[in-house]
Amino acid sequence: MSVTATPRPTGHPGYSETLPREPESAATARRLVRTALAAWGLEHHIDDATVVITELVSNAVDHGRLDSIRVLVTHPAHDCVHLGVVDRSKSVPVLRRDADDEETRGRGLVLVEALSDSWGTELYRWGKQVWAELKSEVQT
After folding, report:
1. pLDDT tops 70 at residue 99
2. What's the CATH number where 89 sits?
3. Residue 113 forms part of a structural domain
């Protein structure tokens, strides 16, 4: 499967790809993120961004409804990377801070919150996008 650049309607640079709603798609999403960040010279975000996109894809795989998801990686400002995963479920993810220590799942959004500057959910008539933004330190 090849990764191609697609411009957003707003004119911001972006990469996106429709993937099967299956756990293996996280690896493709990580490659897409690494490709985009390298193209934009934002390699310093790669480690955090690949963890974040993995968690967002995992949530969409677990809770989405249809057979595919859409992964978006955009660069809306010189100091910001926006990661998003779109699925056809309108179920809003919930940050679970009280997860049982015995559980091996259910803490992905805690990681997303810890590694990103902001995150949230954008509801659509037919589904949602769960997104996270990573911002660079502004050098003075």
Report:
1. no
2. 3.30.565.10
3. yes
